[in-house]
Design goal:
With 100 residues, the protein is mainly alpha-helical. It folds into two domains: 1-41, no CATH class; 47-96, Arc Repressor Mutant, subunit A (Orthogonal Bundle), CATH 1.10.10. It contains four helices and two strands; from the N terminus they run H-E-E-H-H-H. The chain has helices at residues 3-34, 56-66, 71-78, 88-96; strands spanning 47-49, 54-55. Strand 1 and strand 2 form a beta hairpin. The model has no long low-confidence stretch (mean pLDDT 88). The structure holds FE2/S2 (inorganic) cluster. FE2/S2 (inorganic) cluster binds next to loops.
């Protein structure tokens, strides 16, 4: 392989890497703007308990799958509601709604 060919191949590889990086960065930027987690990761949803950063999807899944029936039970599992307590009314609503 001649020197010119090697340089052309290296330039091609750099250009290809630049395009791939730009595409990933653009996808990552969109994900951040949407506020969604990277592909394949669980979306915790909007924050319900700000003291412990516990999202609505995390709560509804725990209530549904673990049969949590009280804010205290949620607190034992996820810590939500165990600090300032301002999220407890919403935790109660989620329990009453059956975490649907
Ligand atoms: S917001 Fe949930 S304990 Fe403070």
């Amino acid at each position: 392989m001649g020197r010119q060919h090697q340089e052309a191949l290296a330039e091609h590889n750099r250009a290809e890497a630049k395009i791939i990086k730009a595409q990933l960065d653009q996808a990552e930027r969109r994900r951040v703007l949407r506020g969604t987690p990277p592909t394949g990761q669980f979306d915790a949803g909007r924050t319900v308990c700000s003291c412990f950063s516990v999202g609505i999807n995390t709560l509804t899944r725990a209530i549904r799958e673990q049969g949590l029936k009280t804010p205290e039970a949620i607190g034992e599992r996820l810590r939500a509601g165990t600090n300032c307590g301002s999220c407890i009314p919403e935790l109660r609503r989620l329990i009453v709604d059956g975490a649907t």
